[in-house]
Amino acid sequence: MNPSDKPRAPRNRTLTLSASAQETLARQLLREPLPAGVAALTGRIICGDFIGLLPQLPRAFVDLLILDPPYNLTKRFGAESFCERTLAEYEEWFEDWFVRVLPLLKPTASLYVCGDWKSSAAVHRVLDRRVLVRNRITWEREKGRGAKSNWKNASEDIWFATVSNDYCFNVEAVKLKRRVIAPYRENGQPKDWEDGPDGQFRLTHPSNLWTDLTVPFWSMPENTDHPTQKPEKLIAKLLLASSREGDFVLDPFLGSGTTAAVASKLKRRFLGIEIDEKFACLAARRVELAQDNPSIQGYASGVFWERNTLNLQPKSAVPADTEELQLALGETPQPYRASKAKTK
Ligand SMILES: C[S@@+](CC[C@H](N)C(=O)[O-])C[C@H]1O[C@@H](n2cnc3c(N)ncnc32)[C@H](O)[C@@H]1O
After folding, report:
1. Are 241 and 170 in contact (CB under 8 A)?
2. Atom of ligand 1 nearest to the CA of 51
3. In ligand 1, which atom is closest to the CA atom of 283?
């Protein structure tokens, strides 16, 4: 059965498209042959195979590249599927198109590449040969199937690299709001933390270990039926750290459109490419919805909130049924009591 045909729980918020909505959205997608020039591609979603489209794209126009390619697993993505291969073959496949994407980047561009443990070593080797690798972020995915004879796989990597040593990194834009465990005071005043109406918090520098994320699931409005959808909060961190308002973000494996929706919410220009028409239409719908609702779950008042703080976050950062979400996240439901915090 197609996942979108499954009966849904009444409070399931998964974004789906009727046949007529899909038909309308499909007409808005760009297809081959592509129009010339950056302006004609700005804020658009192309339905097609990005590898074949590469020669038609402008040179040196991208400030930030987000790559979330199929991992080295056998997996179906709508009408397309990817077959697991040896690590050496995956590396060859990845490098073959990666070198052809590089001319699209500005000399000051940054890039992030997602991968699981099975793909990560190959991704690192290719990046190390072609660009400047700066870090490996590991994020805890939480959701994952338990295994009887192996460790449950519950983490993924995101490699951070730049084209040159001239690049932007806005650390102030990606600080994490954490509860203070040892509230140290100096002369009676909080030292490097805030004693606010919602409790005692500290703004901390973000590390390369991310534990404040959850994969999208049915009670979250950003959820779709895409099998490997990334959380908006994760993509928001990448965009805020490594681009400025108005910068150009390219995602050639757009999937359900997370990068496009977040770019639109954070006022970045974007171009997304997705081979599967149904996913490309979902992406287009998410961009439309982003115009009316630019909130990003877990990000508000210019900061990212750690887990277990849903009841304290400004309303715009949490869904209406906060308690349900707290339960699904394995948190203890707390009554909602955010006070004066402003929304960004
Ligand atoms: C890992 S998923 C990306 C998920 C995405 N980050 C999201 O949040 O929804 C990879 C996507 O790339 C698409 N894809 C695979 N090969 C492609 C190609 N050659 N050109 C364009 N899209 C492709 C797949 O259909 C799939 O939706």
Report:
1. yes
2. 19
3. 9
User: Which ligand 1 atom sits closest to the C-alpha of 226?
Assistant: 9
- How many angstroms separate the alpha carbon of residue 258 from the centre of ligand 1? 11
The domain total for the chain is 1
Ligand 1 lined by 119 (C-beta under 6 Å)? no
Distance 275 CA to ligand 1 centre (A): 7
pLDDT at position 114 is 98
Return the residue matching tokens 């804020």.
Answer: 43
160 lines ligand 1 (CB under 6 A): no
5 in any annotated domain: no
Domain-embedded: residue 338: no
343 in a structural domain:
no
Q: Is the CB–ligand 1 distance for residue 112 below 6 Å?
A: no
Rounded to 5°, angle at Cα 240 from 56 and 14: 80
Nearest CA to ligand 1 atom 20: 49
Which stretch of DSSP H or E encloses residue 203?
strand 199-204
User: Token pair for residue 198?
Assistant: 């919602």
In 3-state terms, what secondary structure has residue 200? strand
CA 84 centroid distance within chain: 23
CA distance 26 to 33: 16
pLDDT tens, residue by residue, 215-265: 898 888 899 999 999 999 999 999 999 999 999 999 999 999 999 999 999
Residue 339 is predicted with a pLDDT of 47
Residue 339 is assigned to a structural domain of this protein: no
Query: What DSSP line would sit under 87-141, residue for residue?
Result: HHHHHHHHHHHHHHHGGGEEEEEEEEEEE-HHHHHHHHHHHHHHSEEEEEEEEE-
CATH number of the domain residue 276 falls in: 3.40.50.150
Range of the domain at 86: 10-328
Please work out whether the CB of residue 226 comes within 6 Å of at least one atom of ligand 1.
yes
Ligand 1 centre to CA of 227 (Å) is 10
